Amino acid sequence: MQTLHADVVSISPLTEFVHKVILKPQQPVTFEAGQYLQLVLGEKDKRAFSIASRPSQTDALELHIGASVADSYAMQSLEHLRSAHNNNQTVTIEAGLGVSQLRLQCERPIILLAGGTGFSYAKSMADHLAEINCQRPVLFYWGVKEESALYAHSEMKAWADSHKHFEFIPVVENPTDSWTGHTGYVHKAVMDDIISLEPYDIYMAGRFDMIGIVRDDFISHGAIRENMYADAFAFIK
Ligand SMILES: Cc1cc2nc3c(=O)[nH]c(=O)nc-3n(C[C@H](O)[C@H](O)[C@H](O)COP(=O)(O)OP(=O)(O)OC[C@H]3O[C@@H](n4cnc5c(N)ncnc54)[C@H](O)[C@@H]3O)c2cc1C
């Protein structure tokens, strides 16, 4: 883990509720794809956010923060970042955290499963896999409540088009009549598409209640617990 001071370069909306934050650390940052950082609000108040950028980008860190009035955890974090940005102050971060980073030393196909802003976690791994020209099949499922939350739809379609082994599957829980893709819960779409999850390494991020359900449903669908990775496991039973 590295403790660093970082400038808040920009905060820009991705949707009504999700914001992209660019941080510029005052020294080069080292992390693995799929790790997270903690934004230090106080000595005992540290908030976890996945790093959306690739490890090769050592001079800037991208975060996606889903903040609404109902979510004080994220809203207070965003206010902290805004205040630092407006007053030309740095924020303190602890980078390179987590145990659910991408494992590259095997040949198993990969499922990246993201619910909502869990996208950030999966995006770092997807971009890293493209950068190293990974030859393993990679299925990237991104589940959102409404179509309007698919803020990186075109970017991920381009990612999938860039490599014959990559596939991007967006899943909308409450679709409009014009939506022609997968619908419902994102992990149900995975189970509809794939007969057995036994061969896969599975990386996932999303709400804690979602991750508990997905773990149990996926194991019933053949997934091997040791090949499933989620930092949320540390926070749930
Ligand atoms: C290590 C760590 C890193 C984190 N990183 C971030 C981050 O980078 N950004 C951030 O904003 N927050 C982060 N958080 C906080 C938390 O993970 C997010 O608040 C959460 O992922 C937000 O989900 P959402 O509201 O966007 O999903 P929603 O919009 O509520 O849901 C999106 C989709 O998830 C699926 N889903 C949701 N609930 C269920 C369910 N009960 N059963 C089955 N499927 C379900 C559905 O497919 C749904 O359409 C992090 C937390 C930890 C511990």
Give a written overview of the molecule.
The protein folds into 2 domains: 96 residues, Translation factors (Elongation Factor Tu (Ef-tu), domain 3), CATH 2.40.30; 126 residues, Rossmann fold (3-Layer(aba) Sandwich), CATH 3.40.50. The model has no long low-confidence stretch (mean pLDDT 95). Helix content is 24%, strand content 32%. It has 5 helices and 12 strands. With 237 residues, it is α/β, with parallel strands linked by helices. The strands form 2 sheets. It has a 6-stranded antiparallel β-sheet with strand order 4-3-6-1-2-5. A 6-stranded parallel β-sheet has the order 10-9-8-7-11-12, sandwiched between helices. Strand 3 and strand 4 form a beta hairpin. The site of flavin-adenine dinucleotide has 28 residues, from strand 4, strand 5, strand 8 and helix 5.
Give the structure's gist in a few sentences.
The protein is of the alpha/beta class. It is built from five helices and twelve strands. The two termini are 25 Å apart.
Low-confidence stretches: none
Question: How many strands appear in the DSSP assignment?
Answer: 12
- The ordered H/E elements are EEEEEHEEHEHEEHEHE
Helix coverage percent: 10-25%
- How widely separated are the two ends? 25 Å
Assigned CATH architecture of the largest domain: 3-Layer(aba) Sandwich
Bound molecules: flavin-adenine dinucleotide
The main pleated sheet reads as: 6 strands, antiparallel
The CATH superfamily name of the largest domain is Nucleotide-binding domain of ferredoxin-NADP reductase (FNR) module
CATH topology title of the largest domain: Rossmann fold
- What is the radius of gyration? 17 Å
CATH domain class of the largest domain: Alpha Beta
Number of domains: 2
Query: What portion of residues belong to β-strands?
Result: 25-35%
